[in-house]
């Protein structure tokens, strides 16, 4: 089957569909045909970059597809239909190269940018508004049994090929830098880097200083809370001194 892309027929259909939404009459449709023929290239370009872009994640984003399949498998797991849940996990692994255990608990508004190499273990817990890039592992150390996988709080950003191993807490709003290996608990809003990972700084909370566009929308949502967390941490440090 050939890839249609954005053909002329589709362009005409979408053009007039948009006009119908705004209540144009048939006479107005006809009068606008020359406009379409003259400006079709411009219109197609604008439409692709503004309108179609909104639907790309639903139609083509593999991370979104993998999450939808995970949530179906998780519901099956909760309903004790573990065979079907494992089948969904196997399908996601084969199709999208992501191994997300159906028993893992994922919160709302998870952003899985790319599925390649992502591993999320059975007892992992991920909070809301967490961004996970490609190649991330939320796994065990091999020395634990039972509850053995990481617990990520809200607003965490885990960058490319980072690994978080063991039953450890990853604090709210923290950043795990690319290719870091985390084996110890992470403070809230900390920026972790290295092998093994260590704290190299703390997250900035102004919109201008949010460097990653994946998380810019969280500034207004969490800024007040995160500022209070930083303030409490500074007070605790002062008391220790």
Architecture overview:
The protein is α/β, with parallel strands linked by helices. Among the domains are: 8-60, no CATH class; 104-204, Hexapeptide repeat proteins (UDP N-Acetylglucosamine Acyltransferase, domain 1, 3 Solenoid), CATH 2.160.10.10. 43% of the residues lie in helices and 15% in strands. The chain contains six helices and 15 strands. Helix 4 packs antiparallel against helix 5 (82-96).
Proportion of beta-strand residues: 15-25%
Let me know the CATH homologous superfamily of the domain at 104-204. Answer: Hexapeptide repeat proteins
Q: What is the mean pLDDT? A: 80
Overall strand count? 15
Category by helix and strand content: alpha/beta
Tell me the strand order in the biggest sheet.
Answer: 3-6-9-12-14-15
CATH fold type of the domain at 104-204? UDP N-Acetylglucosamine Acyltransferase, domain 1
* Bulk shape: globular
CATH class of the domain at 104-204: Mainly Beta
- What's the N-to-C terminus distance? 70 Å
């Amino acid at each position: 089957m050939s890839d249609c892309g954005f053909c002329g027929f589709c362009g005409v259909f979408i053009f007039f569909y948009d006009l119908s939404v705004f209540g144009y009459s048939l006479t107005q449709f006809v009068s606008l045909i020359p406009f379409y023929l003259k400006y079709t290239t411009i219109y197609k370009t604008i439409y692709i970059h503004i309108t179609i872009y909104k639907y790309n994640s639903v139609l083509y984003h593999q991370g979104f597809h993998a999450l939808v399949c995970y949530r179906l498998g998780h519901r099956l797991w909760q309903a004790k239909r573990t065979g079907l849940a494992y089948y969904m996990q196997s399908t996601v692994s084969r199709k999208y190269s992501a191994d997300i255990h159906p028993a893992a608990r994922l919160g709302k508004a998870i952003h899985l940018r790319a599925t390649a190499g992502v591993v999320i273990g059975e007892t992992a817990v991920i909070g809301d508004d967490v961004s996970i890039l490609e190649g991330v592992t939320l796994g065990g150390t091999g020395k634990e049994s039972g509850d053995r996988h990481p617990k990520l709080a809200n607003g965490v950003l885990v960058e490319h090929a980072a690994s978080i191993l063991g039953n450890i807490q990853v604090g709210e709003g923290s950043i795990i830098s690319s290719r870091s290996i985390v084996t110890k608990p992470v403070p809230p809003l900390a920026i972790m880097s290295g092998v093994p990972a260590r704290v190299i700084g703390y997250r900035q909370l102004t919109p201008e200083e949010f460097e990653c566009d994946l998380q810019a929308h969280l500034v207004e949502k969490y800024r007040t809370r995160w500022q209070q967390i930083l303030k409490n941490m500074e007070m605790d440090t002062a008391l220790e001194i």
